[in-house]
Predict the structure.
Amino acid sequence: MGRELNNVVVIDAVRTAFGRAGEKGIFWKTRADDLIVPLLKALIKRNPKITPDMIEDNIWGVTNQVKEQGGTIGRVVSMLADWGYEIPGCSIDRMCAGGLTAVGFGTSYIASGMADCLIAGGVEHMGHLIMGFMRDPHPRSEEVMGGPSAFNMGMTAENIHERFPEFTKEMADRYAAKCQLKADEAIKAGKMKDMIISLEVELADGTRMVADKDQPPRPNTTIEALKDLKTPFRENGNVTAGNASGLNDGACAVILMSEEKTKELGIKPVMRWIASAVAAVDPTVMGIAPVPATQKALKKAGLTMDDMDIVELNEAFAVQALYCLDRLGMKWDDPRVNRWGGSIAYGHPLAASGPRLVAFLAGLFKEHPDAKYGLSTMCVGRGQGYSMIWENLLGK
Ligand SMILES: CC(C)(COP(=O)(O)OP(=O)(O)OC[C@H]1O[C@@H](n2cnc3c(N)ncnc32)[C@H](O)[C@@H]1OP(=O)(O)O)[C@@H](O)C(=O)NCCC(=O)NCCS
């Protein structure tokens, strides 16, 4: 029985502000599930034609699925939002691309006809659940993954510097400083306001505040200041706190719908899903994987990088971003890439970052009606890349 695929569109995307992990972080006293609930409520409030009973699945990417992030968070949060018993939900893990995979699974569900409307998102509280917490790797995992550096993402970035010495520390610092500058300009211009849902939180010292701004950006970053930062992953190495993403807390959620359903409801969607691909590489240089993933997605879409008007590339580390841009045929400062800055400035709460890329792309599509196609792409610990291609529906 042959069947047509349904067109899948993004209706809206929201996120929490991103916090620094740890006691000085804005979410130190806020649970991961409590980061999600306000997003669910906000999505329904902002989109009055959508009611909770229309949400046919609630798919959440989460890396460390233990403690407050365990117990199938995607199922529980809809009940915490007081939506009753009838909203199914699940949690999935592809480390940093857990949330992008949630969006990818969501598009496949809708394309295949399994659902008409769902929420996909990602959450990570790296302050409460530190990277690798309670993990018990197989005794052979170091051997099969190419050595111990495969387990430490900073070391994988050092490995890229070593294996591809044309990407120097100076280039990584220049890239990072530019990222902070772009983020500062975007924040000052109010670009984050529409997507950030504010939350009242308690801080470590017991005072309360409204968390409505990202905590990680360092607006006054200069190349000079980055030059002499410590290299925690290798003695006399190249990767520093300044040219890496940080340790962060945050959540981001996206509403997906079949295009058919939007017509029935009279909703104007932002962008249409075109193609996705996932690819895997040597885990000791995991950051290079967006290249094969993007090449594969472009091939499926019948498009090339020249067709991409906006590129949202997750910056786990400046060096892997530089490698990916170069190998995909772009300059380090290509104006299509991370126009509002990237994870080096905003932070990288692992599984929350994929939907954050989708939220930024949606915002940029709104701002640039002349842009037709966009790419969301990211690398993943253990050596994977995930890429999604989208078409702007608000275009000319
Ligand atoms: C790199 C890393 C170890 C740094 O952690 P940290 O030491 O807690 O980072 P900090 O924010 O305290 O920064 C360290 C220092 O650099 C300085 N610094 C950081 N960014 C800076 C910037 N843009 N400009 C100037 N100084 C900066 C800080 O002020 C701090 O200085 P201090 O030691 O004098 O206080 C941590 O962020 C990390 O592990 N990142 C990678 C996360 C990861 O692997 N994610 C998964 C990706 S796949």
Observations:
- The chain has a mean pLDDT of 98.
